[in-house]
């Protein structure tokens, strides 16, 4: 059973992953490259915990204890040594992830499992950067991590069945449901989300309907919790552009990014995180 979990990267996803694991009463060690990044991550966790408290899903005491289970640090070796499972959530860049995994391979005990939260990079390529490719796996969470029920487990070409079983059990202990998918570009979920989102952005660009009406139609007509344009703003338009480029390379033109997506990214309008994307935010 995986008892001690380390999370590498305390951004949007890493902070939510650390919180979810701590809410399941497991010890968490959280690493980022600077104290400032860790402080930002902890602030996100506090904000999310207070939503759970407000909704009556956690007591104030549970929230405090959850926070106390998360130990932060900026020394990677110190944070990850002794961990049973490390979950990586650094930016979506293959060479950065390979570099991080080489370090994790050096600093963790031989039996530790190294999981990546990549949205669509090759788990097999990340595994090949280590000396334990059988113990490297995709553990793909969804935003907001403490709320979303699914973990998509991505079995790389070299991932062992034992590794899949440990991550499946860990996911269940955290209260998540799992699906197991092959390591193909975009796995299942990223490819499925992108296909829908890109077509909706294309229709927005063609002027078929306004942003508000496209989102309303999908929310009320298709019963999705969010419309595709507001979801793109939440995920990050830079991320969606990157996903679209990689999917286009793998599957062709049907995933090609609409001009408007590229222009928004070029203008620095990346969605919620910059205050502007398809919509403008004042938070
Ligand atoms: C890019 C990738 O690789 C993969 C991805 O992540 S793709 C993106 C996947 N995510 C999605 O598709 C999200 C779609 N959206 C949703 O599921 C929902 O809109 C949402 C959960 C984000 C918000 O739910 P909502 O009903 O629209 O709004 P809201 O009423 O504010 O929230 C619903 C509940 O969740 C809670 N909640 C929402 N975000 C929260 C957070 N970050 N922390 C804690 N609680 C949260 C709210 O407090 C609320 O609780 P109650 O029902 O008890 O009041
Ligand atoms: N944003 C989303 O909706 C989702 C993102 N993902 C994936 O999760 C990963 C992280 O994405 P986000 O959390 O959105 O990014 P983010 O930009 O919010 O967070 C990344 C964090 O990594 C830190 N970092 C940078 N270099 C590092 C290094 N060398 N070592 C450790 N930390 C480092 C940054 O300081 C930052 O805190 C990506 O692979 C992304 O594709 C997966 C599911 C959903």
TrEMBL record:
Keywords, alphabetical: NAD, Oxidoreductase
Family matches, as Pfam families: 3HCDH (PF00725), 3HCDH_N (PF02737)
GO biological process terms held by the UniProt record: fatty acid metabolic process
Positions marked as site (Important for catalytic activity): 140
Residue sites binding NAD(+) per the record: 9-14, 32, 92, 97, 119, 143, 273
Pathway annotation: Lipid metabolism; butanoate metabolism
Domain (3-hydroxyacyl-CoA dehydrogenase C-terminal) ranges: 186-281
Domain of life: Bacteria
Domain 3-hydroxyacyl-CoA dehydrogenase NAD binding positions: 4-183
MF annotations from Gene Ontology: NAD+ binding; oxidoreductase activity, acting on the CH-OH group of donors, NAD or NADP as acceptor
InterPro entries listed in its UniProt record: 3-OHacyl-CoA_DH, 3-OHacyl-CoA_DH_NAD-bd, 3HC_DH_C, 6-PGluconate_DH-like_C_sf, 6PGD_dom2, NAD(P)-bd_dom_sf
Family, as annotated: Belongs to the 3-hydroxyacyl-CoA dehydrogenase family.
Protein name, entry field: 3-hydroxybutyryl-CoA dehydrogenase
Native source organism of the sequence: Parageobacillus galactosidasius
